[in-house]
Amino acid sequence: MTCKTDAESPPAKQSMDYAQLLAALEQASAFDLFRLESVIRKELESAERIRTVKKQLTIGQKLSYFDTNSNSLHSCEIIKLNPKRALVKDFTDNSQWTVPYHMLNIEGADTRVNHNVERGLSRHALSVNDVVGFRDKHGIERTGKVIRLNSKSVTLQCDEGRWRVSYALLYRVLDGEAGTAQQPLILEGDNTHPSDNDPMTIEGTVID
Predict the structure, then answer these.
(1) What is the pLDDT along the chain (208 residues), one digit of tens a residue?
(2) Which class is domain 18-103?
């Protein structure tokens, strides 16, 4: 998803298979993940990579950046190119943010994670405002809109109120109704959420 017009938009880049990559990472140890994080961080902060990205950007260019909190792309416009960050106007609410260059989706990559629906949905396969379904403990089918992505469960806004539901119980809904939710604004891509041990939340039951 990008904001460019048809005349401006390059063909979408063939993205990496994120689902396959995540499946491989599930076999990695904590130390393996730490080493990968260290290598990836150095690559993201590489002056050469930053220069490469900046060469492809112009003031007024419309594109998108990836918000890790909502796990989705935000449409934006380049306002200013700083040494290590870009000042962008977020079309979500016309606010302005400075974002690292690596958060900009300049190639129009498909960021969705294709997930096997028979295994439920993973956190990486969902975005804030997605509509999903689940069966409660009484076997009643319910639908809701994603308002928060937690580490082991998702918070949904349903007609009956807010529910905290395990990812393993979710499935995609093409047509459904759910309450509205305010999408959070994230600058750095940090993702801080309440603990899954919050006593007010119970897997598969409504939150009082």
Answers:
(1) 444 444 344 445 556 777 778 778 888 899 999 999 999 999 999 999 999 999 999 999 999 999 887 888 899 999 999 999 999 999 988 999 999 999 999 988 877 766 554 557 878 788 888 898 898 887 888 889 999 999 889 999 998 889 999 988 888 886 534 333 333 333 443 333 334 443 233 234 444 4
(2) mainly beta
Is CATH 3.30.70 the right assignment for the domain spanning 119-206? no
Q: What phi, psi does 89 have (nearest 5°)? A: -100, 120
As a whole number of angstroms, the distance between CA 69 and CA 2 comes to 18
Alpha-carbon distance of 160 to 109, in angstroms, equals 37
Contact by Cβ (8 Å): 203, 166? yes
Asked whether the CA dihedral 1, 186, 190, 193 is positive or negative, the reply is negative
Cα–Cα dist 47/131, whole Å: 40
At 44, is the secondary structure helix, strand, or coil? Answer: helix
Domain definitions of the chain by residue range: 18-103, 119-206
Give the tokens for residue 201. Answer: 């939340």
Closest to 98 measured CA to CA, from 89, 106, 86: 86
What would the two tokens of residue 127 be? 């975005």
